Amino acid sequence: xxxxxxxxxxxxxxxxxxxxxxxxxxxxxxxxxxxxxxxxxxxxxxxxxxxxxxxxxxxxxxxxxxxxxxxxxxxxxxxxxxxxxxxxxxxxxxxxxxxxxxxxxxxxxxxxxxxxxxxxxxxxxxxxxxxxxxxxxxxxxxxxxxxxxxxxxxxxxxxxxxxxxxxxxxxxx
Length: 173
What we know:
The chain is mostly helical. Helix content is about 75%, strand content about 0%. The chain is built from seven helices and no strands. The N and C termini lie far apart (about 40 Å). The mean pLDDT is about 90.
């Protein structure tokens, strides 16, 4: 139920604002932006949700500062570090691929990585604020950026295919 409120808000935002805005710009913009929106919604689900029901309580617990020692869990063999590293890389591969598509042009590697970094940093800073049991880690930031870079490489590799799809969608408008 706690997650349902967040998903309802995301759905209402999409239906009443974003859908019509993107639809006016063409099918290609609607499809690529919708894919990015769905992807970002899942990222929120796995990293921050539930958000709305926890807002009244964000100041009811101490804020745990970010761990600034890269790969300390790996070095000390704590927890399931391999799984965490792999999942953090995998989580942002779609961002590196979808961000240029949702922009409608290739913003370049550095802008894509910068935006991936901002997304990851925002999540890492908000996690302990929203939930006192969550922590943020510089390793997550590094691995998220790595995932964004891999996704951007996939974007470059598959650019002829995505350009072809985009062209077909524009022709069918």
